Amino acid sequence: MEAPDSLTEPFTLPSPTPPLPSTPLPGTAPPGTAPHYAPPGALGIKSWAEEDRPREKLMAKGRAALSDAELIAILLGSGTTKLTAVDVAKLMLQGVGNDLNALAKESVKQLCRHPGIGEAKAITVVAALELGRRRKEADAAPRTTITCSRDIYNLIRPNLMDLPHEEFWVILLNRANVVMRKTAISRGGVAGTVADPKMIFKEALEQLASSIILVHNHPSGNRNPSAADIQLTKKLKEAGQFLDLPILDHLIYSDQGYYSFADEGVL
Hints:
DNA polymerase, domain 1, 2 domains, Cytidine Deaminase, domain 2, single chain, alpha+beta, elongated
């Protein structure tokens, strides 16, 4: 009996094993349609194009380029095994009707009900939204305009009243002489304190101030300037002229009153 011709004998190719579906992207399949699948690892933000990652996007394009969800995702830092931080943020916003004001009213406990949100992440979000609320309050509050030395005294009095030691402060103003910030530069002992010109002008330059007012107190109650006070004021005035940051006044504070270099014509 002859052996069958192996070249002509019919044969059947084995059916290939169908590939397992990858994890579906959350929220991408409309009702009644087949879900969209992403390759393994596509859910991680690190697999995104660099310009689409929230942190990198903020650095490259600025904070205004990010959506609310992307900004919240930066606060969250990470997502879950199945959701990116952006996905978690979107679900948070959806839970409050995409209303940031409503989100700001949620407590830590309420935020923890959202998928992927634990106590630490909830606290971070609450803290950030509280800062936003305080900023609104600060913007709405009337800002002090300096028109005379008495305005300076009234502004700084809550900071220097009853102090047993010397402190040196600067008040930074914009072009309209509206107070931008008041900052303590140094704290010393009963007899004096050190005021570093570099720190004074560094603060003013960082805040983009237009002018500076100097203030320090004399715990003894003696309002007259010392020779060191006069020398320092002259030095700072000259430096301010060079930097286009004029020194408008130097006030020596005491609980009983004050001495103004500008009023006395010494500045």
